[in-house]
Specification:
Layout (H helix, E strand, L loop, with lengths): L5 H21 L6 E9 L5 E7 L4 E8 L9 E11 L2 E6 L7 E5 L10 E6 L6 E3 L1 E3 L1 H5 L5 E7 L5 E7 H7 L5
Parallel strand pairs: 1-8
Antiparallel strand pairs: 1-2, 1-10, 2-5, 3-4, 3-7, 4-6, 7-9, 10-11
């Protein structure tokens, strides 16, 4: 038999457990971003990955078909740095072997009217890079020395912009 003093305690306990379960079920786990991914092109038009590491490290990058449907997010290229990228700027060609990088999945041919996203990651999922989404038309508008990336404004709005590599290096880590 329950005493009258234990019912409120039991109800509070059940209520606390229910709130905890609800919070756990509705909260998503995300990897904190501490780098910014971008794209550029070489003088002969080859696609470059660009990574500005802001404070910790990034171990590699992946290019995938960007889609709201998780089942349609297909990896089209993946690269692992020979050594973790530390704070600063890194670039590498996405379509050919590069010193300091290993293609864990060589770049598949890119197609028109498809949106791609490039992001950076760590092997232990402790850090990530903010991604950049782009199409081949976006790539074709780039010129050597320019970087397309998603800039985050002071109020948290995100917009894709194209800037010089120097400006990318100076401003990409703001508002992280």
């Amino acid at each position: 038999m329950w005493s009258t003093t234990s019912r409120p305690v039991f109800r509070r306990f059940v209520g606390a457990v229910a709130v905890g379960v609800a919070l756990a079920a509705t909260s998503g786990c995300t990897v904190p971003a501490d780098a910014v991914a971008g794209i550029s092109v070489t003088a002969d038009g080859h696609l470059l990955g660009v990574m500005m590491v802001c404070g910790h490290r990034i171990d590699g990058a992946t290019l995938y078909v960007d889609s709201d449907d998780v089942n349609k997010q297909v990896t089209v290229g993946s690269w692992t740095a020979d050594r973790p990228l530390t704070p600063g700027l890194a670039t590498w060609p996405l379509d050919s072997p590069a010193a300091g990088w290993t293609a864990t999945r060589s770049l598949a041919p890119l197609t028109a009217k498809t949106t791609y996203a490039l992001y950076g990651w760590t092997k232990d999922d402790s850090w990530a890079a903010n991604s950049i989404s782009f199409t081949l038309a976006d790539r074709d508008r780039l010129t050597p020395g320019k970087v397309r990336y998603d800039s985050i404004s002071d109020n948290g709005d995100v917009s894709a912009i194209t800037v010089s590599i120097a400006e990318f290096k100076a401003k990409a880590c703001q508002n992280m």
